[in-house]
Task: inverse folding
């Protein structure tokens, strides 16, 4: 009996030592192509957002990643995440954005193999993940409710001038923003415009309803969310103008996943060439061909 107790204590002590003294034992590394195939499952990190991930088991990015899993010959699995943790869930690193840079704050469990939920390519994000080839165009717009006295700009044909005209409309306004996303106020230098940023605690999907209900004078919205809002709330909002140049969205992979990243690019190129991707986009974002036709003509 004494020997059994001693053996148990030794095993427990070794386990605690492994957990506390060797961090990698507690946090699996990102899985590259061979490891994903060996596991037989592709874990898709999802955050409900616009029509990329609807939360009902479908969406543009859900269809893309399901197709990628089929291409690899593995099972698809959706893993729920959120904006504050999604990059840690992919990379195993707790990340704090600081403008165009990042600070690594610690380690976290790796919970997924790919982020795809209408993720905008931003400078700080490229420091911690590898993006695939662009899959969708975007831009950040200033949006107000339709009754607002603020009027849309008249486009000049010069995006830099259009952004300046839009920023000139901001004086005295309270603008809803969302930290950790492409709508983070740190990306827009709002203070010189005379506007005040109001951090929004809810989902990105709720920004348009919030401004309609009068929680702020305006909100920042990216193109996909604005297009969904225009369809969902006809006559309730209006677009004032652009706050950024055209940007791209793309799925993200950990730096330790070069082969999975390259295989996705091959798969997606085939999807584009076959015409199947345009059919997917028309299903979820029919208006995007009107607002941003250049991306799809390419």
Result:
């Amino acid at each position: 009996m004494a020997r059994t107790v001693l053996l148990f204590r030794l095993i427990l002590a070794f386990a605690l030592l492994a957990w506390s003294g060797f961090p990698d034992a507690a946090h699996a590394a990102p899985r590259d192509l061979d490891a994903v195939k060996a596991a037989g499952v592709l874990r898709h990190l999802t955050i409900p957002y616009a029509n990329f991930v609807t939360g009902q088991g479908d969406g543009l990015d859900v269809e893309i990643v399901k197709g990628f899993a089929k291409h690899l010959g593995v099972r698809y699995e959706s893993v729920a995440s959120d904006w504050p943790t999604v990059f840690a869930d992919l990379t195993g690193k707790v990340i704090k954005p600081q403008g165009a840079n990042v600070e690594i704050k610690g380690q976290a469990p790796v919970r997924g193999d790919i982020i795809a939920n209408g993720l905008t390519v931003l400078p700080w994000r490229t420091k911690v993940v590898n993006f695939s080839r662009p899959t969708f165009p975007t831009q950040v717009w200033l949006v107000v409710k339709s009754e607002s006295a603020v009027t849309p700009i008249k486009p000049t044909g010069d995006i830099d001038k259009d952004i300046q005209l839009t920023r000139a409309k901001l004086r005295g306004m309270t603008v809803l923003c969302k930290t950790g996303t492409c709508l983070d106020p740190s990306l827009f230098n709002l203070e010189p415009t005379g506007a005040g940023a109001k951090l929004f605690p809810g989902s990105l999907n709720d920004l348009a309803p919030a401004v309609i209900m009068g929680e702020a004078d305006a909100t920042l919205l990216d193109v996909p969310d604005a297009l969904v809002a225009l369809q969902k709330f006809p006559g309730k909002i209006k677009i004032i103008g652009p706050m950024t140049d055209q940007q791209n969205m793309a799925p993200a992979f950990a730096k330790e996943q070069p082969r999975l990243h390259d295989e996705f690019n091959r798969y997606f190129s085939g999807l584009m060439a076959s015409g199947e991707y345009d059919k997917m986009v028309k299903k979820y974002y029919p208006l995007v061909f009107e607002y941003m036709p250049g991306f799809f003509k390419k």
Notes: The chain has 13 helices and 14 strands.
